[in-house]
Specification:
The protein is mostly helical. The protein contains two helices and no strands.
């Protein structure tokens, strides 16, 4: 698209410069998009990893809380059954 818009308006002696600018723009966008997608992929992978760690920690806390509740309840129940 850049070539079709720049070719008719470029003077004859400057056609090589227009072609060079088109190639530079095309290669620049290739580098920019690769860098951008790499950064987005890195952020997405880091978020997935850390969200999994946070989820595991939260789940472990919930399980520990339930175990403590049942352990305390068991101690109270056993304590009641013993004669004074």
């Amino acid at each position: 698209m850049i070539m079709t818009t720049s070719h008719p308006i470029t003077p004859l002696l400057r056609q090589g410069e227009a072609l060079g600018l088109r190639l530079m723009t095309s290669n620049g966008y290739s580098v920019l998009m690769s860098t951008l997608f790499g950064a987005v992929g890195t952020v997405a992978a880091a978020m997935a990893l850390f969200s999994q760690v946070v989820f595991n920690c939260a789940q472990r806390q919930t399980v520990n809380r339930q175990l403590r509740f049942w352990a305390i309840r068991r101690v109270h129940l056993i304590g009641r059954d013993q004669p004074a």
